[in-house]
Amino acid sequence: MVQERIAGSRFVGGVDYKALNEHSVIDFLSPLENASKLLGGTPTTWTVREVGDGNLNLVFIVKGNKGGLVVKQALPYVRMVGESWPLPLDRAYFEHEALKVQTLAAPHLVPKLYHFDTMQAATVMELLEPHIILRKGLIKGIRYPKLAADIADFCALNLFNTSDLGSPAAEKRERQARFSHNITLSKITEDLVFTDPYRLSDMNRWTTPQLDKIAAAFRNDAPLKLAAQELKWMFLSRGEALLHGDLHTGSIMATESNTRVIDPEFAVYGPMGFDLGAFMANLLLAFFAQEGHATKEDNRETYRTWILDTLESFWTLFEEKFLSLWSKGGKGDAFLPTLFNDDTGEVALEAYRHMTMARLFQDAIGFTGAKMARRILGLAHVEDLESIADPDRRALCEKRALTMARALMVGRTSLSTIGDIRDMAETIAKEPVA
Amino acid sequence: MVQERIAGSRFVGGVDYKALNEHSVIDFLSPLENASKLLGGTPTTWTVREVGDGNLNLVFIVKGNKGGLVVKQALPYVRMVGESWPLPLDRAYFEHEALKVQTLAAPHLVPKLYHFDTMQAATVMELLEPHIILRKGLIKGIRYPKLAADIADFCALNLFNTSDLGSPAAEKRERQARFSHNITLSKITEDLVFTDPYRLSDMNRWTTPQLDKIAAAFRNDAPLKLAAQELKWMFLSRGEALLHGDLHTGSIMATESNTRVIDPEFAVYGPMGFDLGAFMANLLLAFFAQEGHATKEDNRETYRTWILDTLESFWTLFEEKFLSLWSKGGKGDAFLPTLFNDDTGEVALEAYRHMTMARLFQDAIGFTGAKMARRILGLAHVEDLESIADPDRRALCEKRALTMARALMVGRTSLSTIGDIRDMAETIAKEPVA
Question: Model ipTM?
Fold first, then answer.
């Protein structure tokens, strides 16, 4: 019994694993009845395009005369680095398992799942059209009226349902055990987010020489390093909820009326603030990058305001949704509602709920800072900033973002409202930069 | 690979499982070479005594002409309740696994392991002689000069080594996954320690009618119930270290010069403060029980002082030892020492270490309170108090202990030194009781 719980991950990428290509993906799909039905016509009529622009996987879009789908296959190494950095294929198992959990919590906010192939470490899922990667939309200056509410819902539903408020202990402990084996991908987060930006590492890079001084200052900033390590310890030890684990704007596909979250291969139990911080960090990076995308025709002022409106709404709606789920009472073993069934009990519990949200806010903005800094001083950068061709202009945006990152990490326990964060971003964006 | 990590627990108590008796335990041992060697002579000369006075297991002491050993076998139900409360046999697996981990961290403070039999859910281990259960020693008024230092070492070594300070993330995540499957025994803790004492439950009992009023007050005390549930949430979600999980004075065997910790079948990853609180709670219960054991010849005044001296030394030595392990640098991924290699870094980290201990102290005293209350209002009581025959006299001790329990749980964030705790115990012990 115990064994079967994680047996699924054992055979991922078996002896017959072979990276798919635009031809073999057809042979892979044709025996699958639901895929054939969805695509329509005969396999010879299907068209294939490999579109994986991420770091770790192959992604094929396959279309037939009736419809389309996506095949995502894990590669045994980090695509952007090459075969010198191997990565276990079982991450495809953890991604699929996480998608199943998220489908239960928020089916309208993730792609539909059609099939998982253990041997090939490949998932067949819904083709999201005409969605584009949110990050690209934010660079273009597109407004997404539903974004804040949808990601707030995604976070609230998933974090609540998989926590000890929403899941009975037996169910949660089993799920946590399963995802605890997602060790290699968790280690990437541990190193790249919380450690490398604060030390010399061959994998770091930054806009040089413009950021050399601030990068060195980060490496010698004791309070900042303590904050980073405290956040790391939280990431390692606080199994509060099943995290998406990589909830940046490149893991969201959106149209103006529809939002979907993809790519949860970093899923692991961790502190709730980590996912919330990842999303907020990437909004703030988009905000600080706007100055680099301003043109004579569009100074991006109103769009920057929209980004901060989205940030503010996101937190406000998340808090509202999470509190409402908690007030309705979850199936979890923490804070059993029956213990607080009288008037004083209900009042006290309601006060406690708000205190919990205040603490969660401080965790979240700490992780926000860490996730901002790593995208400027660490290995993996963001297109929002990278696409600013002029290095001086880019460095200006990056310095502002780093100033904010540090303030959030070191000052998180003295900040208490999302309005404070908005004000801070607006102030820093106006200040002259050394 | 992933599968093999926990495969050990799968076959515990297989089809051929049979509760051992004083005869069959000889047949069980005789094929084991190391056991035979240890005991000496032929199996027909071995003597057996069943001594299990705990709640869940059979314990046989087997002796030969050369030496002795212990066979501990899990029963498929709670012994003190009967077959109506079934319990999974795989707890023997978790106990043995925990003993192996503890043997690596602190071999001198646990019994030697000789053999584990998966099918029979039985462990063969060192016979501790002339040790007695510490709780019985505390009732008798025996002083243990090494106790504080030994349990401080046991806690510091085990909690540090299995935490993210002492274990690399890959090792810790695997270990946490393994012990996360110890679901049923964890659930007993969750219910009996953190929930039942604060609600009506058929399993609760207390000295009645003397404690009826205070028991009702506990069930209607909103701040106290919030504290209990907050501690429960911590127990459920903070995987800081591998806990012993049941570190009361009945899980310690001692002579005046030697101390061993036994029975880690509740082992699970959880907050470090839980183990520390368990031990401190049971010292405080012993302290408040002394008044019930006082006689004309011995008013137990100096012994009570010794118990509080032990409590104070325990925390002081634990803190010292934990800080010294941390200062030397662990193998863990949190707070990598290399990040703080310069002068300001070292100073800042040292300050942070002390802040961490201050937080841990507050966690620990919160759990202390919870572990005291559950032994007076919940299902499982302690002999320290139960052995006070006069119910009025017992109730007096219990009321004082409950007063302290509540003060620790609700006031934990405003208490900061072990001296405060000692003073509180001394004050409460002198106050008149309603």
Answer: 0.95
